[in-house]
C-alpha cells in the first residue's frame, strides 16, 4: 500500500504541468548560467566554468530558490485533497494513515529530487557546449555531480520539504504553507546578512545554516584557485555535522507527521468555521413584497462601485493573517539592519535618514517582487477561489472597476509593506537617540524608489494573470520575465526604454540631496506608468468575465473594446503619454547623449586598442608645467577649462608629431600647439594628431593650449553619476584635460573580456627588472610638473584645487551671475594628477608647527571633523619626525558626495567621501576609529606617492599603498597601543587569505605586486607590521628615511621595490635574510597552532604551564599550490588571563610574551608565571601569515574577562 | 420576452454543450429540465452574460444579450448553480456590497432594499452572521436575495434546490413562484417535481438540445394511455428491456417496479398507469438515449 501510494503520487506529479515547468525553469536557469559568460555563477577569473566550486555554488543557490520545489510537490500531497475537495473521498478509503502520509511524502520527495536534478544535469550538459572557452573547462568528474547533488541538493530539499510538509499537514492551508515558504526564505536571508556582519559567529553559522551556504563558505574560506578547480568539500568536520544535523531534524519532523497524521482532522484547523448557524425558526414566506429600487448605470454609479469595490478588495487582502505575517516579515527583514547593518568595519554610523532608507532598499530588493507575484494571483483569482465570481460578474458593474480596484489593492499591500518599514526606520532613529529624522526623504525615496517600481510590476503581474487565465502560468510568466530581463541586461540589451519598469538608479547624498537624479527617475517612471496604464486597459479588455475563455477568442474581440469612448480615450492617453515621455527620454539618452550598451563600450575599447596601440610607446614630449582657468557651473552640472601646458622634449631625438587624447565625453572647444598644426583627428576616440613643424628638438620647450568643456546635457540611460553636481563637485584632470599620447585608460584589462574581443592577454605590469620602465612614472606619463589654477564657481560655493590660495575674489560673469573665484598655486612641482572640488562648505581649521590643517565639510556632518584634524596632526607629526620633513604647509580634507566611497590623496589636498567617516559614530571608544586610520593613510601618501614615486613596473603599489598602510599602522599603534592592533591585523590577514581564491591570473610575491589590492593593502599591512615587530620600528623607519633620501622627487629613475629591499637588507643584517626573502620575495604561509596546554601549581605558589605547539611553514606558487618547508623562525609564545579576541583584553592581561626559536614541527615550551594563565598562544597577535589564524590560541582553563561590550575586527580603509 | 435563437457552443474538449438551441420564453416561471451535463448550466451562463456562445442570438425585450451584456446585467438576477462565499463576511454586508455593484447607489434606498430582502428571505435574524456559517437552505435563500437585488426583470436560477431538505425546498418554491408573477424566471433543474410544482411552461434539454417543450399538462396529456407499469423480478429485467421501451425502473422491496411506454397494451400483466411529468421526462430522455445508440 505504501509504495502504491508513493507510486501514485509520483506518477500523478511527474507529468503535471507544474513539474515540467519547474524542471524547465531550473534547467534553463542553470544552463544559461553555465553557458552565457555574462551570468556565470561561482566561476569567474581563473576558476573553471565547470569547476567543483562552480557546481557547488550553482547547486547551493538554486537549492535556496528551489525551496519552491518541495513546497509545490510535498505540501500539495497533503493539501491537494482539500483543494480538490476530495479529502473525504480519500480519507474514507481503507488506507492506513501511516501508508497514506508516508507514501505521499516519499512520492513527493522523489519527484522533488527528480525536478531538482535539473540543476546538475543542466550544469553537466551546459559545460559540454562547444562555444565555451576551452581554457576555462576542467575535467568532468561524475561523482562530483552525484556527491554534491546529494549533500547539498537533496539535503536542502529534505530540510525545506520536511519543514513545509509539517506546516501543510498541521495547518492544511495553502496560504499558510506558502507564507511559511516566504517566511523561511526571508528569515534565511536575514540570517545570511547577519552572518556576514558578525564574523566572530562564523563557526556557529556554519554549523546551523540549513542550506549549508555558510558551511561551504567556512570549509573553503582559504581555498586558492587551484583548490577551487580540483577539490570538492569533504564530508567531514562542520560540514558533516551540519548535514547530519539537518537530515536528523528533517527525519524527526517526518516521524512527527507520520505519528500525528489523522484523516479526520481534515481542515478542522480552519479557525472559527466549524460552527454552523442552525436553520432555526425560519418560516415559509407568507407574502412577497419585494422592495423595489431601480439601478443606476451612469458614471456616478460606477464611481461608487469603484469605491465600494476598492474597500472590498483592500479589506480582502488586509483582513488576512498572511498580510500581517508579511508585514512582520518585512520588519524582520529591515529592523536588524537599522541597528547593525549600517556599520562600516564594525563601527556604527550615525543613523542618518540616507542610511536608513538605504537599509530598507537593501531589504526590499527582491521581496516586493515575490509579494507582487503572489498577491496578483491572489486578488485576480479570489472570486473564483471562493466560487463567487459568477455572482459579481453578472452585476452591471463595469469591468474596469474590478481590474482597477484589484490593482489598487495590490498597491496597498506594497505600500503597507514598505511604509511600515519606513516608519520603523524613523522610529529606530529615535530609539538610537538620533533626532534629525527627514520625513520627506522617507516619503519621497520610499514612494519613488520602492513603491513605484513595485506598483509597475503589479500592473504587469495582473496582465500576466489575465492573459494566461491560470494563476500558476501567470506567476511563472513573471518569473520568466525576470530571468529574461536579467539575461538581456547581461548581453547588452540594457536600455531602460525597453526593460519594463526600469529606471536609472538615483543615489542619494546628504550633500547633494536628490541631486539631478530624482527628475530623471520620474521621467522614466512616468513613461512606464503610461505603459502600466495601457497594460491595465488591456487587462480589463481581455479579462475573462464569467467563464474562462481561451486567449485567442478574447484577443479576437479586443479591437471592439476600444470602440468604447472612455476606454479608447484612456488607451490613447496611455499611448500618447508613453510616446511623448519615451520620446523625451530617447532624446536625452540617445540624442543629447550617446547610448552604448555595455557590450558596445567594450567593443569600442577593443577597437581603440587595435587601431592605436602602436602609439603607446612612441617618443612624445612631456608636460613640465601646467596652468588652468576652470569655470564650474554647479547648477548646470557643467565646467569649462582653459589649460596651458609647457611641453618639453625630454627624449634625445627630434619629434615631429604630437598626439593628444581626451577623456570620453569631453567637448573640445579648441587646442593649439606652438609651432605645430592639427593634421588628423578621430573624434570617436578623442584622439588628435599635431604635426610639429619645425620638429621639436631635444630639450626644446613649447606651449600647448586647449579649451574644453564637460557638459552633462540632459540625462543618460545609465551612468548619470557625474563629477559636477548641484552641491559636491569633484573631478580630476584625467576626465577632460589634455593627455599626451595614447590614453591607457581605454584599454581592456580583464583577460576574459579581451579574449572575447579577440585580443591577447596583457600583463598587469611591466617586469620589475625592466630597467627602461624605471624611468617611467608609475601613475602618469609625465614626471613632476608645475601647477597653478584659477577656479570660479557659483557664489554660494567654495572651489578648491591643490596648492596654496593666492587670491580670492568675486566677479560677475557675462550673464550677470555672481561668481566666487580663487587662484591656487603650487610652490613646488607635483605629480601630474590633481582635482578640483566645489560645494557649499563649512571649514574647520587650525595651525600646528606651521602647517594649516583644514576640513571642508557639509554643515550637517560636523561630528568627526575635530578627529580628522587630530589625525592629520598626529600623522604629519610622526612622518615628519621619522621619515622626512613634510613638503607642504597645508593639509586639507574635503568632503564629497557618497556616490563613491573612498578617500584619495592629492598634493596637500584630500577629497574624502561623506560615506566613509564623516557620519561615523566614534563615541564608543572600544570601536575601531577608522576615521583616524583613513586620515593617517591618506596623510602617508604625501610621502608615499607625492615624495617617493614608484617606477612603472611590478611592485609599484607596494611602495605606495603598502607603505601608506605601514605608516598609518605606526601612527595607530602610537595612538592606541600595541595590544589593540591585533584586531586590525587579524582582519587584514583574513581578508588577504580569503581573497586569494578570487585571484584571476596569478598571485605574486609582495615585491612584485601588480596592483592587486588584496596583496598591497591586506598582506602588505600584515607583513610590514611583522617586519617592524621583528626588526624594530626604528630600523624600518631608518630604511624608509634612506629610501626617501635616495628617491624623493626622483624621476631618473623612480623608486622600485628592489631599492627598498637593498636598503632593508643593509639595515637588517644577514641574520634576517630568510625572513626578508619569505616576507617579500616569496609567498610563504604558516600554520601555527597550540595543540594543548596545561598548567600546574608549583610548591612556591607559582604556576607552570606546558604548551605544545605545532608549527609548519609552506611556500606557495602563483596558483596556490603549496609545498612544506622546514621552519626556523622566532615566534611569539604567550600566556594570557583573557583572550586577545575579547574586548576586555589589554596589556594587563599578558602574563608572558616571549619570542622563541621554533625550528621543529612539534615543540613544547614550559613557562612559569606568578598568576594562573587562562589562555596560551603561539603568534597570538597574528603577526605572521597564518593559514588558520583561529587556532593560535588555546584555552587552558575557563574564565572570562568580565568586560561589557563586544567589539569586532574592522576592515581598514585604503 | 426572452427569445433564444440557434445558440450553439462547443467547448475546447469537443463537448457540444449547446446544439442549436432555440426557445421563446414569456413572463412567468419557466422550467428547464435535464440530466446532469445536458448543457443547462451553459445555457444559463450564456443568458447571464457570463459566457459567449459560438453562434446564435438571445434577446431579452430590446436587449441583445450577447452584444449588450451590460444592459442585460442591469436587469438580471442570477443565482448560479454552485456558489461559495467569502469568509468573515456577514450576509448584510455582502448584500449591501452587491447592491452597490447592481447600481443601487443611494445609501438610503440600498438600506431599504437590503433590509427588505433579508426580511423576505427570512434571514434578518442571522443577517450579521457570516454567510459561510449558514446551512444549505439559508445559503440558497441568501442566493435568491442577492439575485433579487435591483428589481430584475430576468431571473435565472440554476439548480437552486439541489441538496435542500424537503422543508427548505418547499419554502424556496413558494418564494420563487411569488416572484415569478411579473418577471421572467428561468429555473434550471434536474428535479422533476421542481418544475411540476412551479412552472406553467417548461423545456427538457438533453445533450445540448431542446428535446421537448410546452406546458407540463400538455406534455403529460400527450402520454395519456401510453404508460404502463408492472412489478417484475430482477432476472426478468434484461428481456423486458429488449422487448419494451422501459422509461423507469425503481427497486421496491426486492422487486423492480417498471414503467414502459407503449401505444398499445403490452399485456403480460402490465397495468395502465396515469402519466405524470416524470414519465414525460424519462420518456424524452430515453428517446435521446435510443437515438444516440442508433447513431
Automatic annotation (TrEMBL), chain A:
<feature type="transmembrane region" description="Helical">
    <location>
        <begin position="100"/>
        <end position="125"/>
    </location>
</feature>
<feature type="domain" description="Peptidase M1 membrane alanine aminopeptidase">
    <location>
        <begin position="869"/>
        <end position="1079"/>
    </location>
</feature>
<dbReference type="GO" id="GO:0004177">
    <property type="term" value="F:aminopeptidase activity"/>
</dbReference>
<keyword id="KW-0031">Aminopeptidase</keyword>
<feature type="transmembrane region" description="Helical">
    <location>
        <begin position="317"/>
        <end position="335"/>
    </location>
</feature>
<keyword id="KW-0812">Transmembrane</keyword>
<feature type="transmembrane region" description="Helical">
    <location>
        <begin position="407"/>
        <end position="427"/>
    </location>
</feature>
<feature type="transmembrane region" description="Helical">
    <location>
        <begin position="475"/>
        <end position="493"/>
    </location>
</feature>
<protein>
    <submittedName>
        <fullName>M1 family aminopeptidase</fullName>
    </submittedName>
</protein>
<feature type="transmembrane region" description="Helical">
    <location>
        <begin position="175"/>
        <end position="194"/>
    </location>
</feature>
<feature type="transmembrane region" description="Helical">
    <location>
        <begin position="564"/>
        <end position="587"/>
    </location>
</feature>
<keyword id="KW-1133">Transmembrane helix</keyword>
<feature type="transmembrane region" description="Helical">
    <location>
        <begin position="54"/>
        <end position="79"/>
    </location>
</feature>
<feature type="transmembrane region" description="Helical">
    <location>
        <begin position="355"/>
        <end position="376"/>
    </location>
</feature>
<dbReference type="InterPro" id="IPR050344">
    <property type="entry name" value="Peptidase_M1_aminopeptidases"/>
</dbReference>
<feature type="transmembrane region" description="Helical">
    <location>
        <begin position="12"/>
        <end position="34"/>
    </location>
</feature>
<feature type="transmembrane region" description="Helical">
    <location>
        <begin position="447"/>
        <end position="468"/>
    </location>
</feature>
<feature type="transmembrane region" description="Helical">
    <location>
        <begin position="244"/>
        <end position="263"/>
    </location>
</feature>
<feature type="transmembrane region" description="Helical">
    <location>
        <begin position="522"/>
        <end position="543"/>
    </location>
</feature>
<keyword id="KW-0472">Membrane</keyword>
<keyword id="KW-0645">Protease</keyword>
<dbReference type="InterPro" id="IPR014782">
    <property type="entry name" value="Peptidase_M1_dom"/>
</dbReference>
UniProtKB/TrEMBL annotation, chain B:
<keyword id="KW-0067">ATP-binding</keyword>
<dbReference type="InterPro" id="IPR003439">
    <property type="entry name" value="ABC_transporter-like_ATP-bd"/>
</dbReference>
<comment type="similarity">
    <text>Belongs to the ABC transporter superfamily.</text>
</comment>
<dbReference type="InterPro" id="IPR027417">
    <property type="entry name" value="P-loop_NTPase"/>
</dbReference>
<keyword id="KW-0813">Transport</keyword>
<keyword id="KW-0547">Nucleotide-binding</keyword>
<dbReference type="InterPro" id="IPR003593">
    <property type="entry name" value="AAA+_ATPase"/>
</dbReference>
<protein>
    <submittedName>
        <fullName>ABC transporter ATP-binding protein</fullName>
    </submittedName>
</protein>
<dbReference type="Pfam" id="PF00005">
    <property type="entry name" value="ABC_tran"/>
</dbReference>
<dbReference type="InterPro" id="IPR017871">
    <property type="entry name" value="ABC_transporter-like_CS"/>
</dbReference>
<feature type="domain" description="ABC transporter">
    <location>
        <begin position="2"/>
        <end position="232"/>
    </location>
</feature>
<dbReference type="GO" id="GO:0005524">
    <property type="term" value="F:ATP binding"/>
</dbReference>
